[in-house]
Amino acid sequence: MGQFSISDLEQLSGIKAHTIRMWEQRYGILQPIRTATNIRTYCDDDLRRLLNVATLCGQGYRISKVAQLSEEELCRAVISCNEGTHDYCQRVNSLLAAMLDMNEPQLCYLLNHAIQQLGFEAAVMHVVYPFLQRIGVMWQAGSVNPAQEHLVTNLVRQKMMAATDMLASVQPKAAHRWVLFLPEGEMHELALLFMNYALRVRGHHVLYLGQNLPIKELQAVCDTYQPHAICTVMTAAPDRDRVQDFVNSLSALCPDKLLCLYGPLAHIEGLELPGNATRFRFMPEFLTLADKLLLGVGSKE
């Protein structure tokens, strides 16, 4: 069970600390435990309730009315208000509350509804990614357990694979060709899966090689497939002291290909990029490149 300070709740919910204190004192929204030094500490249930309350208040509900709702009524009202809103913060708050409750049906409903209303790419960029970023903050605070994180990751992976499977096929000879892979030891796949979808929906052809690929395998892939670009995501692998060697080896194996690097390890201090490599700090930068490269289809045939 997580333990949060009031500043943690402010950061995770978007509700100012003084407002949280007022809601607590006037309406009994939360029931914190006080330490021996009289400091408030809050648990997972407090955070989940605050997220739901914030969602309803953001939709115009009066706090005095929300405070009177039971937990069941609160959850039903949150689901109902998400049916007609494009407010991304409220959607993220609802997803966080469902995750904390390990409510898989509600998570699926909220994700599916965001996709239906916004379109897949917009739902990922404006709802799923902020949701995952908030989970990262909660992980650092020790308030998300592995089961909760795995539940969300697997659901999002399912949505990405299903959306990709629905796309029309693209002929490789008529398209800009990409190889997408994760380095050996790297298992964090969501960003690469989204890149796969984003490229395909734009008409690029993708050879998706997935997780944990030994770099030496790329030579044969390049000889056979003749890609225009190679993209990888470095989140946890390779080790930080081996990133430069990995990037240099990748460039040496594929000297005439555009190398696209994404993830935290692509931005470590002192990393020197080969002349054929570029890196992206944010996903919109990659999407912009994908759009621009369509204008150069066939230039490397």
Description:
With 301 residues, this protein is α/β, with parallel strands linked by helices. The chain folds into two domains: 6-164, Methionine synthase domain (Methyltransferase, Methionine Synthase (B12-binding Domains), Chain A, domain 1), CATH 1.10.1240; 172-296, Cobalamin-binding domain (Rossmann fold), CATH 3.40.50.280. 53% of the residues lie in helices and 11% in strands. It has 13 helices and seven strands. The strands form two sheets. The chain has a five-stranded parallel β-sheet, sandwiched between helices. The protein has a two-stranded antiparallel ribbon with strand order 1-2. It starts with 5 loop residues before the first helix and ends in an 8-residue tail after the last helix. 34% of the residues are buried. It comes from Hymenobacter volaticus. Residues 1-72 form the HTH merR-type domain. Pfam families: B12-binding_2, MerR_1. Keywords: DNA-binding, Repressor, Transcription, Transcription regulation. This is MerR family transcriptional regulator.
